[in-house]
Amino acid sequence: MSEPVSALNGASFQGFASIREIGPLGMITLRAKGVKALDKAVKAVTGTKLPATRRIEVNGDRACGWMSPDEYLLIVPYAEVAASLASLANDLKGEHHLAVDVSDARAVFRVEGDKAADVLRKLSPVDFDKLEPGELRRTRAAQVAAAMWAQDGGFTLVCFRSVAAYVMGLLTHSAQPGSEL
Amino acid sequence: MLILECPYCGVKAEETELSPGYEAHLKRFGPGSSPEEFEAYMFARKNPKGVHFERWRHTYGCGKWFLAARCTATLEVFGTYPAQVSEPPADIIAKIQARRPDWKGYK
User: Fold this and answer.
1) Which residues of A touch B60 (CB under 8 A)?
2) CATH code for the structural domain at A12-174
3) Cβ of B60 and A139 within 8 Å?
C-alpha cells in the first residue's frame, strides 16, 4: 500500500507563534441524529462520550467533535480508520446513518505559542477570549471554511485539503514576527 | 454589522459567516395554481421598511437554515428560530409587538 502523504508534507513556520501542518490524521464524518446506539458506537471508536452542542471530547490521540445537530467529526489514528468504520457499521447496523473516511479530504494545522490566538484572531470573526476549553468552533479563516479548537496550549485547525496551501499562507502571514496584536 | 444567533448551534454569527436566503414564510404555488398566484409566488416580495422575516443559512458553521425577524430600517434583530415552522413563533411575535406597537403582523 502507498504511504499516506499530508497536503503540505508537514510544512511549518516559526513566527511569533509556531505553525505546523500535522497529519495525516484519521478523520471520519459521522452523520446521524436521534439514533439510539450512537453513544455506544462513538465510544467504541474514540473512547469518549458523545459531545454536547459545539463541544469536542478529546481522549489522547482520539476525539469526537460536534459539527452540526446531525454531524460529528471522529478523529482516530490514521491507520485505524478502516477498523473504526467497520466498528461504526457494526454498531449502527440497521440505523439511518452515514460514516465516511474524510482523512485525505482535509488538512490539519497546529498553531502553538503564547500568542497563538492572535494568529487566528486576524483571520476569523470569532471572539477567542470567549472560546471555552473544549469548544469546537466552525467558522471561516479569511475566505474558506475551517473548524478550530483549543488543545494542549495551542489551537488545532481543520480545513479542506484543496485549500491547505491557502490556509498555510494565511497562517504564515498572520504569524509574521512583529505583527502581534 | 448584522449579528444573528444560530438557533441550532447557539453561535452569535456575524453576517460574513452566513448566507442570505431572502424572504421567509413564502407559500409555494406550484402545478395547478393560477398564473397570477404563480407569478406572485415567484416575483412578488414584500420588501418592507421595518419588520421583516428572512431565511439565513449558517454557511460557515453548522450549515443549517434558520429564520430571523429583524427590522430593515434599524437592523434591530427581534429573534431567530429554527426553520421547521410555517409561521413565526408566538414569543417572537410578542417581542416585535412590544417593540413596534403599530406593526400590522407578518402577513
Assistant:
1) 138-140, 145
2) 3.30.1360.120
3) yes
